[in-house]
Design goal:
By secondary structure, this protein is α/β, with parallel strands linked by helices. It has two domains: 200 residues, Rossmann fold; 231 residues, P-loop containing nucleotide triphosphate hydrolases (Rossmann fold), CATH 3.40.50.300. Helices cover 27% and strands 25% of the residues. The chain has eleven helices and 19 strands. It has a six-stranded mixed β-sheet, with helices on both faces. A five-stranded parallel β-sheet has the order 5-6-7-3-8, sandwiched between helices. Strands 2-1-4 form a three-stranded antiparallel β-sheet, with helices on one face. Helix 2 packs parallel to helix 4 and helix 7 runs parallel beside helix 9. The chain is globular, with a radius of gyration of 23 Å.
Length: 462
């Protein structure tokens, strides 16, 4: 009989406010990969933490009931990978993982070399961790976990910041784990991209749809839009831009223009400079050379304005207030009257159930939607969004796609960074960063003829 990696029998978690998630009945055998599926806030992270022997996140003690039995040595990838990277450099972190590995000593070096190449970390061997991008840190955390190679790996959102090559490496690493008689249990909305087609599954989706009913993106904005009135208007342009971070040049001699009412996808591999470019456009990072001009003004203050910015880490936007308080603060900073209406936006993003809860106690997907709402409520003509769709399941992404298209039709411009080209079907331009340079395509099909229509595109998208 095949040995079980873990067993759940009518297992559930109850929070201090009375909210209960579960019960779950499920088991995973060694040599298998399992997918934990469910929308943000459904309890995926809490269940993984419980399996790892950690107290699930909550405002006070969380009680458990039912049966939970983990029969294998276990290791967990947190959904915030930077929390488990302790070494000062890539070399130090991987060396520590190799020293504590469950693999036989004669196999450790061979596995380390495979992971270095697969996750594109060989060129970063001496790089300080503080200089890595979010995606590169995620690759490092994954490589260390697979190098330690416990009998049961629990992976929380492992592909959230990975580029295409990183997802391929993740798929290969999971296959190697399963072939070696070990188990992997993965919670990620994009699990089909890197998990075996025969992966066992535990679904946390509610029986009834949790999507908002009767809410239309047509009600999202107050008053008529100004896209037609501002047709052809330039909001921002830059020329010969060079950006340096951590003593190295990230991008060099790039030029671009953002017009009124455009959606622009900023794509590129991990470490290609997407976040650095967004920070520079938003005025938080000073360019090394070149010229960047914002050609619009705040309507209330009649001065040059910075674009609204959603950072890659949604946690950095939250101050400890309730969701209601966070959104009210963002609305007070609005650059103009009219624009996005808070109530329809809250309903479309599915935040009503979390309205009175502290933002810091939400799931990563819920935090992501709160941070997105805060950026949209700024009502700036240009909104920069750094990976706004990660941690979100398909239906949530489709709804946000509708919000983006409604914003474009009203006259807002969106610059959206993503490590994969999932935004191509409904964008006006694609800016692709590769080795410090930038290619601009205005015909998205010409950028990549192999790209098929994404599940993110609303029905009827081109």
């Amino acid at each position: 009989m095949t040995e079980k990696a873990f067993v759940l029998d009518s297992f559930k978690l109850t929070y201090p406010d009375g909210r209960t998630i579960g019960p779950w009945t499920f088991s995973l055998e060694r040599g298998q990969a399992g997918a934990l599926r469910g929308p943000s806030g459904s309890g995926k992270t809490s269940l993984l933490h419980s399996l790892a022997g950690l107290d699930p996140d909550g405002f006070g003690p969380i009680t458990t009931s039912g049966h939970r039995h983990v029969t294998a040595p276990v290791d967990l990838l947190f959904e915030k990978p930077f929390l488990q990277i302790l070494g000062p450099s890539v070399k130090d972190e991987l060396s520590a993982a190799e020293a504590s590995s469950w693999l036989p000593p004669e196999s450790r070096k061979r596995e380390r070399e495979w992971l270095l190449e697969a996750f594109s970390l060989d060129s970063l061997w001496d790089r300080p961790v503080r200089e890595l991008s979010e995606g590169e840190r995620q690759k490092l955390a994954l490589a260390c976990l697979f190098l330690r190679s416990p009998a049961l790996l629990l992976l929380d959102q492992p592909a959230s910041s990975l580029d295409q090559k990183g997802q391929e490496a993740l798929k290969g690493a999971i296959e190697r784990i399963a072939a070696g008689g070990k188990a992997a249990f993965v919670a990620d909305p994009d699990w089909k991209r890197f998990m075996p087609p025969d992966a066992e599954g535990l679904s946390l989706f509610p029986k009834a749809s949790s999507l908002p009913k009767g809410v239309s993106e047509a009600r999202l904005f107050d008053g008529p839009g100004d896209r037609e009135a501002g047709s052809g208007e330039t909001l921002l342009e830059f020329e010969g831009l060079e950006i340096r971070r951590g003593g190295r040049t990230v991008v060099r001699d790039i030029s671009g223009r953002v017009g009124r009412g455009e959606i622009i996808a900023l794509v590129g591999d991990n470490g290609s400079g997407k976040s650095s470019l967004l920070l520079t456009i938003a005025g938080l990072l000073k360019p090394g050379s070149g010229q960047l001009t914002r050609t619009y003004r705040r309507e209330r203050l009649l001065r040059r304005a910075r674009p609204a910015l959603m950072l890659q880490e949604a946690l950095w936007h939250l101050s400890g207030k309730s969701v209601k308080g966070e959104l009210a603060w963002a609305g007070k900073r609005s650059s103009r009257r009219g624009g996005v209406l808070p109530e329809p936006l809250v309903s479309l993003l599915g935040l009503e159930a979390s309205f009175e809860r502290p933002g810091l106690l939400l799931s990563r997907g819920e935090m992501q939607r709160v941070a997105l709402a805060m950026a949209m409520l700024r009502n700036e003509p240009l909104v920069c969004l750094d990976e706004p769709l990660r941690f979100l399941w398909d239906q949530e992404r489709k709804t946000i796609g509708r919000v983006f298209q409604a914003a474009r039709n009203w006259g807002l411009s969106l610059l959206i960074a993503s490590p994969v080209e999932e935004l191509l079907p409904w964008t006006d331009q694609v800016w692709r960063l590769t080795r410090g340079r930038m290619e601009i395509c205005r015909n998205t099909s010409a950028c990549d003829n192999s790209v098929t229509q994404s599940s993110l595109a609303p029905s009827g998208a081109p």
